[in-house]
Amino acid sequence: MEKKLTTAATSQRYDVVLIGGGAMSTTLGTLIKELEPDWSIALYENLSQAGLESSDPWNNAGTGHAALCELNYAPMKNGVVNPAKALGINEQFQVSRQFWSYLVRNNYVQDPSTFINPLPHMSFVWGDDHAEYLRVRYEALSAQPLFEQMEHSEDPDTIGSWAPLLTQGRDRNQRIAASRVKDGTDVDFGALTQQLAGHLAKSGVDVHYEHKITDLSRANTGWDVSVTNNISGEKTKVHAKFVFIGAGGGALHLLQKTGIPESKGYGGFPVSGHFMRCFDENIINQHNAKVYGQASVGAPPMSVPHLDTRFVNGRRSLMFGPYAGFSTNFLKSGSLLDLPLSVRPHNLLPMLGVAKDNMSLVTYLVSELTKSKGRKFESLTEFFPEANPESWEMITAGQRVQVIKKGTDSAGVLQFGTEVITSADGTVGALLGASPGASTAAPIMVELLKRCFPNHAAGWAPKLTEIIPSYGQKLNENQALREEVLTETNRTLKLI
Hints:
CATH topology: FAD/NAD(P)-binding domain
Number of domains: 1
Keywords: FAD, Flavoprotein, Oxidoreductase, Tricarboxylic acid cycle
Shape: globular
Mean pLDDT: 88
Organism: Micrococcoides hystricis
Oligomer: single chain
Number of helices: 14
CATH architecture: 3-Layer(bba) Sandwich
Helix content: 25-40%
Pfam families: Mqo
InterPro entries: FAD/NAD-bd_sf, MQO
CATH superfamily: FAD/NAD(P)-binding domain
Family: Belongs to the MQO family.
Radius of gyration: 23 Å
Low-confidence stretches: 1-9
């Protein structure tokens, strides 16, 4: 049952309230400002600035998830790799690139090199079974126009020319295989998010930092949103016709507070992690790629090991990991009570079912938690045989909350993607989940707008097509449009 209507007085009224200052909220706010310049918007962020949780560059891999190197997006079944999921994610990422290109053309953000840089994407495996899988994957994906530039090799010298650290000191008798796409990217989503938040503030959006949303209640024409100022302690209430809950790991609690029927049955499973980071110039200069490997048995997609070049605040570094961990808080800045306080009668069975049916994940997490520092470093030497522990430091990554939802038989299903939940009347929307996350923020937010404002969709189409030239079309199926879009986004984002 939904919460009862409230009649408490409000201090401010908005057309839109955005909860959370991450990539999702700032993307949605920017789109709405372009589509409806006269709408009043407020953004509330619990921390001191935008992009400090999942969007922060050291809390995520910054891959620019385009399915070029992430093997979990193209699994093999009965000897066959279906390219459909990888294609879908690549299409989504191309939409985000077009959105970012629009931002650059209109001077809404700074020089694109402040948030996106060209970087080859590679997949790298060893052993006969994994090498055979990578060959099949390459054949399936390279036949698709969006992946036609993919290269593949099992020759150590060729692989070494792509990424020298992978082959230096490696046994020449070990079978290895790699695939590469030269036109991948590294994205600093923290820098992009902060620039979008700055643009929103300049565009008339009321941006509030150090403000925590504590409750949402139905009102006659939308929602009353309870806000607490973290510094002064002042409590206020604002009214919004539409509310977007984009608070990362904090979104589930706020979604539950709405009481909308669509929120029933959802739970969350938090996964924490660590990365190793290197600033040694002698090592960094020998590696210029994102290299993803094969996931361990039972590992969630966010725990797929990878050795990455990173560009953060104008400085290059290397990052390896992640090493999965477990903590019951839903945000890096959250509370250890987040998980137990998220349990409701409507999601208890799904959450218990997930625990019962995902013992391989539980086993994996236990094994990760009990690994010594030395054993963790061994994982890096599988990628980089000559790695020296003295050149690497361990850092704490961000929290990720995997979505738990009811299946067809009411049992729990663990979702490793993102889930958009909207109320039947379109007055509230929320985003749950993790990967591919910020990389696909633009298409996800466009879809949310269409679901929540169906009466505006037709009128918005021309502007959306200006922002995203491939709007409503698939680049993989339209050669002329694909070439035009890729050429323009590469030029504008300085990726060539």
